Backbone:
């Protein structure tokens, strides 16, 4: 990689797996960049910073002197692709490997496994003191599921009607038990945010801090935890 770009990571798991249409985080050194946070819809120029993948302009949501958060354009083909960053004073080039799916689940702490970005059935945040019940449907948030049934406008908030579902059906394991998935698609009004509605298995041993893993097209996500009673 170029000396000023240290790594490009999955925006949820911070693993090396990347997919088109997903969030990614670029780490490096970008002198002169003013730390700035964008908004939805996510534009392609933030504080004078632009980024392309396979020569396609990418939405940029956050920039600083050490980090850039962006969305890999949905139309980028799988394979080794060039990535270029331009700031007000310099241009940086590297290559990234894009996969057909690269599931990552957003996390909320640094435990092992970390607490996942999960809402309970009543839409409250899942925590150790606000647990899900066995048999409830929880919402798990991530990025990188691969293709969707309907076309995506890069950086735009996803529609609420019709919901844009993933082409493939994920496999979700909660405490090692296959869990029923009632929805897998883009979270309405958010850009590139993958939402999975998952029924917590009812087995009695599914209790406490429970590990969760998602597989999409045979690719595993990072492991996170939810709290169940």
Residues:
């Amino acid at each position: 990689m170029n000396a000023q770009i240290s790594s490009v990571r999955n925006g949820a798991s911070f693993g090396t797996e990347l997919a088109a249409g997903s969030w990614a985080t670029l780490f490096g050194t970008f002198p002169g960049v003013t730390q700035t946070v964008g908004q939805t819809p996510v534009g392609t120029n933030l504080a004078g910073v632009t980024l392309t993948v396979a020569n396609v302009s990418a939405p940029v949501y956050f920039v600083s002197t050490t980090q850039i958060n962006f969305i890999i354009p949905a139309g980028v083909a799988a394979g080794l692709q060039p990535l270029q960053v331009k700031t007000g004073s310099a241009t940086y080039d590297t290559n990234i490997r894009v996969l057909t799916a690269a599931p990552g689940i957003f996390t909320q702490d640094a435990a092992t496994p970390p607490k996942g970005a999960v809402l309970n059935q009543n839409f409250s945040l899942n925590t150790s003191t606000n647990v899900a019940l066995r048999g409830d449907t929880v919402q798990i948030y991530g990025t990188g599921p691969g293709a969707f049934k309907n076309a995506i406008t890069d950086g735009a908030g996803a529609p609420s009607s019709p919901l844009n579902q993933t082409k493939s059906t994920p496999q979700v394991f909660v405490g090692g038990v296959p869990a029923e998935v009632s929805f897998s698609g883009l979270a309405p009004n958010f850009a590139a945010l993958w939402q999975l509605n998952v029924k917590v298995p009812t087995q009695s041993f599914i209790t406490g801090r429970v590990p969760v893993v998602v597989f999409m097209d045979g690719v595993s996500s990072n492991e996170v935890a939810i709290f169940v009673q």
User: Anything to note?
Assistant: The domain at 5-99 is CATH 2.60.40.10 (Immunoglobulin-like). The chain has two domains: 5-99, 104-228. The longest strand covers residues 91-99. The radius of gyration is 18 Å.
